[in-house]
């Protein structure tokens, strides 16, 4: 039934293609699940990298503020206010980093961006296997594009 059709046998080939492209098949569900997992992992690595960069930047700023306090008493009140804000931000970001990256030593932002890039490339390759009729494919492709753009911007921040 599924061999190369001759004459009126092209119907069998059409059914085979319909079966392969069915969004309800176990293979299609598994493929879409792999894409979803890859995108979720990529998003997690991007968030972790962004958070770690923000956290490291806040820590660097806190260190500079501590030096400023010792050098200029007239700036003391303003510096202490900013330090308190950054201290709260560092505490919040440290907690978020602990949730995103529970192990130590933590990977660098570059390593996290590379992981996200790998996940995005994997998802992109898996898109080729996905059934074209799956309605969530449009959303997954849009999410992939958004994460790719976010990763590009993140790489600019990393190299700055």
How would you describe this structure to a colleague?
- This protein has 160 residues and is an all-alpha fold.
- It has one domain: Methane Monooxygenase Hydroxylase, Chain G, domain 1 (Up-down Bundle).
- It is built from five helices and no strands.
- It has helices spanning 10-20, 26-71, 76-100, 109-127, 136-159.
- The protein is rod-shaped.
- The model has no long low-confidence stretch (mean pLDDT 86).
Arithmetic mean of pLDDT? 86
CATH topology: Methane Monooxygenase Hydroxylase, Chain G, domain 1
| Uncertain residue segments | none
Instruction: Please give the share of residues in helix.
Output: over 70%
Helix segment tally: 5
Which class best fits the helix and strand makeup?
Answer: mainly alpha
| Helix/strand order, N-terminal first | HHHHH
Shape: rod-shaped
* CA-atom Rg in angstroms: 25 Å
Overall number of domains? 1
Q: What's the architecture in CATH terms?
A: Up-down Bundle
């Amino acid at each position: 039934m599924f061999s190369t059709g001759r004459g009126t046998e092209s119907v069998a080939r059409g059914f085979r293609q319909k079966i392969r492209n069915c969004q309800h098949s176990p293979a299609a569900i598994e493929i879409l699940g792999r894409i979803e997992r890859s995108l979720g992992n990529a998003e997690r690595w991007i968030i972790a990298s962004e958070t770690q960069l923000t956290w490291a930047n806040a820590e660097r700023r806190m260190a500079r503020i501590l030096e400023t306090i010792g050098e200029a008493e007239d700036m003391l009140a303003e510096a202490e206010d900013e330090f308190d804000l950054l201290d709260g931000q560092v505490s919040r970001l440290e907690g978020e980093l602990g949730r995103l990256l529970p192990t130590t030593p933590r990977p660098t932002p570059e390593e996290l961006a590379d992981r996200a890039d790998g996940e995005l490339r994997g998802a992109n390759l898996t898109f080729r296997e996905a059934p074209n009729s799956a309605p969530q494919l449009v959303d997954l492709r849009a999410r992939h594009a958004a994460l790719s753009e976010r990763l590009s911007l993140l790489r600019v921040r990393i190299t700055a």
